Amino acid sequence: MNSIGEDRTKLSKSWFNTATKEDLKRLQNNIYNFYSNISNKKKKIYWTTFTSCQKLIVAKGAAKRFVSLIDIPTEKCNNIAYIANNFVNPIIKKTIDINDDDFALKVLLRWIINTTDITKPINLYIPSRRMRELLIHWLNNENL
Fold first, then answer.
1. How many CB atoms lie within 10 A of CB 115?
2. What is the pLDDT of residues 28-51, one digit of tens each?
3. Does the model's pTM come out above 0.70?
4. Domains of the chain with CATH codes
């Protein structure tokens, strides 16, 4: 399920703009697999990606479970799928000195905190290798 996000820029906003139908269908199937097998359908799931890309990959039964990167749902859910690989907008990056990895990690952590009850175990699907590694390094208190 994770092989789709192996390259550093896979699942970024620009990747979604050029992704093949096969890649999008594969990603949609991966989300459905996470929803139906790993979270066991009986449990609620939230998922996110870039709002403009949401309809490209919405999985059967998961359309109403989408929570944008900036939303804070009223009910928490600990089965979540983060289908994004964040980079700072190049125009903004020219005017502000900001590290892409720091930015991406902060967006990811904010979304996790906003959607889950962090006092309980979390099932998390992150197909982007870069985003997974950023989170793992942060959890292990390692420098990026």
1. 23
2. 988 888 888 776 556 788 999 999
3. yes
4. 13-139 (3.40.50)
